[in-house]
């Protein structure tokens, strides 16, 4: 709060005071008052007025300075009311009360919005679990009657299954911790499940799956990690090149502090200009527009879930050569001691 701005705001009051002051002086001169009395009166009135202005200025300046500094310092500025002292002037009290009422109204609206969002998410989850049943039935019907259906049908059904699963994990990503169960998990079991789940896609696309040294324990949630790895495998299959000896290689390296799971393929690769953006929401990039339709959500969700689990996911690639995705699991010595 600057003094000059404050004086500009008080301009009308200052002008009224000066007008009144001049009239009083004229009256004193009209009644032929003593000049020394007029001088003393003028000095006292001016000093009192200046003192009143300064007192009002400094108490308001201190309050507003504290308010603005706290707003700037807080990550969540709407909590500023909890950090400021009660003002000792009427305008400040009115402002604090107004801010309190606004904050209360906003909190109520946010609460209503959160309840609506939660209800919507619960409905989506319920719907997804319900729709999974007919999808699973369609897949079972296909395998029981392969001679009656074209293979392209099962491919489309599995795409639907994958997209439905993406929706489920996207809905859950913001409150995924409620659904987590962190424990020691064998990586080779998860990889076996993914291989079995995608065996038809491997055969159809003529892609070899190479698995090396995956008999390792990590601290994670098996269900969520399986989804993450499945998204990466699906991307590798989706963006394969039409070459002989196409492969997806999965291997694990281990040190005293961490376990690194690597998934590498010799597919289309990712252009260097697209590489920094692959984890962004809805980013499809050059390959997504040229090769096939893509939602750009798989890696975005995978990255979010890795962050929730405390894992690190990295990607490196060279166009028309390879793509390598690494997931880094930290070893928890505290867990090992308690176990």
Search tags:
339 residues, 7 strands, 5-stranded mixed sheet, two-stranded antiparallel sheet, alpha+beta, 3 domains
Would you mind describing this structure in some detail?
The protein folds into three domains: 3-88, no CATH class; 114-179; 181-338, Histidine kinase-like ATPase, C-terminal domain (Heat Shock Protein 90). Helices cover 60% and strands 14% of the residues. The chain is built from eleven helices and seven strands. The protein has a five-stranded mixed sheet with strand order 2-4-5-7-6. A two-stranded antiparallel ribbon has the order 1-3. Strand 4 and strand 5 form a beta hairpin. It is elongated and about 120 Å long. It starts with a helix and ends with a helix. Mean pLDDT is 85; it is low at 334-339.
Strand content: 5-15%
Helix share of residues? 55-70%
How far the N terminus sits from the C terminus, by CA atoms, comes to 59 Å
What is the alpha-carbon Rg in Å?
Answer: 35 Å
Summed up:
This protein is of the alpha+beta class and 339 residues long.
Secondary structure elements and their pairing?
Blueprint: H1 3-9, H2 11-30, H3 35-73, H4 90-144, H5 151-172, E1 183-186, H6 187-197, H7 199-205, E2 207-212, E3 217-220, H8 222-238, E4 246-254, E5 258-265, H9 285-290, H10 298-309, E6 312-318, E7 322-330, H11 333-338
Helix pairs in contact: 2-3, 4-5, 6-8, 8-10
